[in-house]
Specification:
Distance between the termini: 62 Å
Shape: elongated
Strand content: 25-35%
CATH architecture: 3-Layer(aba) Sandwich
Number of strands: 8
Number of helices: 4
Number of domains: 1
Helix content: 10-25%
Radius of gyration: 19 Å
Length: about 200
């Protein structure tokens, strides 16, 4: 009975690795990095422009707020992959890519961090609603991300949301470079959310 229990445990552990391959790889930590090749864009005609913008809260919805990858399996269930994890809490890891996109967008002027004492006339708040590895198609793995953005005017009084937008992105992760795949998927989601602001 003990031997059967060990075999069952080994099979279950193998089922939790990078879309559930039969081999058990070493645990790996992955990053989500900002793009370094972004070009500064001008504010769109008639669009809102802010001289300085604060990057506010980056909130990651459960279950994506944990370091282990959330894996969407072929049977429709969702599981955590203990062998592939983000290098830190996603809410911290995703701040740099968002800031990079905001700095390249001509509507936001100078972008300051949430801890900065500098004044800003707007704050961008980010909610991440998907950050998962999609393995529902057995022939490929896809990194997915989805975000919503609120641009809030600074000032005292009630919260004044000036612009809202949302976007999603995906990238092929079949090569196993999850840093590249999640970086591309998240950047595409933020870029689409910025384009959709209204």
């Amino acid at each position: 009975m003990k031997r059967f229990s060990r075999i069952l445990t080994a099979v279950l552990l193998a089922g939790c690795t990078g879309c559930f391959s039969l081999s058990t790889p070493d645990s790996r930590a992955w990053l989500v990095a900002p793009r370094t090749d972004l070009q500064q864009t001008a504010a769109p005609e008639g669009g809102s422009a802010f001289s300085a913008t604060r990057l506010g809260a980056v909130t990651v919805s459960a279950p994506y707020d944990r370091a282990p990858f959330v894996v969407r399996r072929a049977d429709g269930s969702v599981a955590f992959d203990a062998y592939n994890v983000f290098a830190s809490a996603p809410a911290l890891l995703l701040r740099a890519p968002v800031r990079s996109r905001l700095q390249a967008d001509g509507r936001f002027g100078h972008v300051v961090s949430s801890s900065s004492a500098a004044s800003a006339d707007a704050q961008v708040e980010v909610t991440v609603t998907d950050l998962s590895l999609d393995c529902r198609d057995s022939s490929k793995r896809t990194a997915r991300a989805a975000v919503s953005l609120d641009v809030v005017k600074s000032g005292r009084g009630p919260r004044d949301v000036a612009l809202v937008g949302s976007g999603s992105g995906e990238a092929d992760a079949s090569a196993g470079d999850y840093s590249a795949a999640f970086s591309a998927a998240f950047d595409a989601a933020v870029a689409e959310a910025l384009r959709s602001l209204k």
